[in-house]
Amino acid sequence: MLKKSWAQVFSDHVFTKINEQIFVPLFSEKKNSRPNAPVNVIVGALILKDFTGQTDDEMLESIEFDFRYQYALHTTSFEEQPLSDRTFSRFRERCAAYELTTGEDLLHTCFIQLSEEMRKFMDISPKIRRMDSMMIESNIRKMERLELLYSCLANLVKKLSRDGQKDMIKGLEHYAEPDDRNKVIYYHNADPVQSDPLQTVIDDATALLPKCMAEYSDTADYQFLERAINEQTKKDDDGKNIPKDKGDGLNSTALQNPSDPDATYRIKANQEYRGDAANLTEAVDAKARLSQTISMM
117: exposed, middle or buried (C-beta count within 10 Å: 0-12, 13-18, 19+)? Predict the structure, then answer.
């Protein structure tokens, strides 16, 4: 039963292919230093943890009580299993510190090598490929047009205020005040005599952009506001910027939130999605049943 289980395949084709030499820079060269847990066991356990969707604690329990995990990680002969409740976190800390210093992700390097070994084992040909796409949802707040334009304008006004550009923001100082956002976006309906807040924001933005273009056109705040105005407004017969109508349409790449300028927008199955579109290229076997993602753009 063990020979027919996943443990045998993992033992033969994954665990034995883990290159421990990749992780040599993480550990001391001193012979009298405290011995570390075997690196191949740590990396193998991390792979199994992701395969099974377990937490660190659940993985440790599986290794302690399930003989298949011990067989897969070649620890059946150990009197005590070599992993503790801090092993994974300490290993991740070392990998993160090394990447921060050198820019090299050792785990990524290891997995790329393992990916090639698995490709050969599963007889996946790099010459046979299929295309797919997916949306990676962005962790950004959904903004209506008024909130988007206001946020971009307020960010630029705050930057100009910090730089002491009082002349440029004369009459727009309220955009830098903490409570102004709520007054403009959420409470404007309470005042029946107040002018259209969206058009007011558009007018203020189009008036401010030319004033600071020479000095601030290369800043992100200026570019986001300019982009939002270009995407969300149109010219009327008098050349004035006004909000676009539903019939004018918006490109899927229109700015969704200045916190994530690359996020796109699309509707699929009557649901809205905001995030990054990814195109996947997969190498597959001759019958296109098994696949390996080989690139993401």
Answer: middle
Rounded-to-integer distance, Cα 59 and Cα 61, Å: 5
Question: What number is the average pLDDT over the span 119-134?
Answer: 70
> What does the alpha-carbon distance between residue 265 and residue 253 come to, in Å, rounded to a whole number?
6
104: phi then psi, degrees, rounded to nearest 5: -105, 125
* Confidence at 228, pLDDT banded by 50, 70, 90: very high
Q: How far apart are CA 15 and CA 114, in angstroms?
A: 9
Q: What is the mean pLDDT of the chain?
A: 85
**Is the predicted pLDDT of residue 2 greater than 70, yes or no?**
yes
Q: How many Å apart are CA 62 and CA 73, to the nearest integer?
A: 12
User: What is the H or E stretch that residue 210 is in?
Assistant: helix 197-216
CA–CA gap between residue 114 and residue 47 (Å, rounded) = 11
Instruction: Return the pLDDT at 294.
Output: 47
Pairwise CA distance, residues 60 & 58, whole Å: 5
**Residues 46, 75: contact at Cβ < 8 Å?**
no
Q: Sign of torsion, CA 72 74 80 86?
A: negative
261-280 CB burial, b ≥16 within 10 A, e <16: eebbbeeeeeeebbbebeeb
Assign 281 to helix, strand or coil.
strand
